[in-house]
Design a protein that fits this description.
The protein is of the alpha/beta class. 37% of the residues lie in helices and 15% in strands. The chain is built from 7 helices and 7 strands, in the order βαββαβαβαβααβα. It has helices at 14-25, 51-58, 76-97, 134-153, 169-177, 187-199, 223-229, and strands at residues 5-9, 29-34, 44-45, 63-66, 102-108, 156-162, 205-211. The chain has a 7-stranded parallel sheet with strand order 3-2-1-4-5-6-7, with helices on both faces. It starts with a strand and ends in a 17-residue tail after the last helix. Bound molecules: nicotinamide-adenine-dinucleotide. Residues 10, 12-16, 34-36, 47-49, 67-69, 71, 83, 87, 106, 108, 162, 164-165, 167 line the site of nicotinamide-adenine-dinucleotide.
Length: 246
């Protein structure tokens, strides 16, 4: 299903750039929303905490891919709470007010890393979040908020438990140094995951899905993502990511 209007928050970020390009490539009209400089005529510059700005950005959209966030451990009160929790609240409220049926939320594998060792493999998609730091605590909150809006406000919400999408050369070198790369998510698989999350035909309800690559098969339940949205990873490390120059 192409030709939808899609709002992508965090569109100037590492995953946002890749996802925005992929959705435009599929024929969707994408409105990017970010604190950073717009890169396209349809983009808006704004802050997720700004209720009116987020609502304006969501107007007319059929789906929101909500990537904008502080993406790692940071000051809880000054960064994580406003950007990740208030920002997600603004996005979900805007989805209800503007009747946007699908919201895809960026969570992380780290949202359940506090109980990692305690689960049988593959780890089921519906294991509850159990964070281990304040960043992952906000992402656990993002998941719980998404589930509540799906249930009470009849949205279709998909929480993407994103693995390791290398943003720069240092992160790429870090993944190279790991013995265990089951969290690796190539740029190509990231494109595919988020396109499927936007385009999959689904009614109201909540789903948490693992956004990882082939190294994660057998460790994480990838069958639910295949069945529910048609996402099947193709890349094992190091395939599927262009040479990172920055
Ligand atoms: N990169 C990974 O491996 C990874 C893993 C798990 C989860 N995630 C999640 O995926 C999402 C995208 O991550 P990324 O790696 O692209 O991070 P990034 O830092 O490259 O991009 C985040 C973007 O969000 C924007 N942003 C932050 N606060 C904002 C605000 N208040 N208003 C408007 N825009 C705001 C930033 O300007 C930035 O462009 C995040 O939610 C992150 O937590 C990323």
């Amino acid at each position: 299903m192409s030709g939808q209007t899609v709002l992508v928050t965090g569109s100037r970020g590492s995953i946002g750039r890749v996802v925005t390009e992929a959705l435009r490539g599929r024929g969707h009209r994408v409105c990017g929303f970010d604190l950073g400089e717009p890169a396209h005529a349809d983009d808006l510059r704004g802050d997720l905490k700004d209720e009116a700005a987020v609502r304006e950005a969501a107007r007319g959209a059929r789906a929101i891919v909500h990537l904008g966030a502080t993406p790692d451990e940071a000051d809880f009160v000054g960064d994580l709470l406003p950007n990740n929790i208030v920002g997600t609240y603004r996005v979900l409220e805007a989805a209800v007010a503007e009747r946007v049926p699908r919201v895809v939320l960026a969570s992380t594998l780290r949202a359940m890393s506090g109980s990692w060792g305690g689960h049988a493999r593959p780890i089921a998609s519906d294991v509850p979040p159990r964070p281990h730091d304040f960043y992952s605590w906000t992402k656990a909150g993002v998941e719980l908020m998404g589930e509540m809006y799906a249930r009470k406000r009849k949205l279709s919400v998909i929480a993407a438990r994103i693995g390791m999408f290398a943003r720069d050369r240092d992160e790429w070198a870090m993944v190279e140094s790991w013995r265990n790369r089951d969290s690796y998510l190539s740029w190509r698989d990231a494109r595919h995951f988020f396109v499927r999350a936007v385009e999959a035909e689904r009614g109201p309800g909540y789903l948490a899905l693992y956004a990882v690559g082939r190294d994660g098969v057998g460790v994480f339940d990838m069958e639910t993502a295949r069945r529910e949205i048609g996402y099947e990873p193709v890349d094992a490390f190091p395939a599927g990511t262009p040479e990172i120059t920055g």
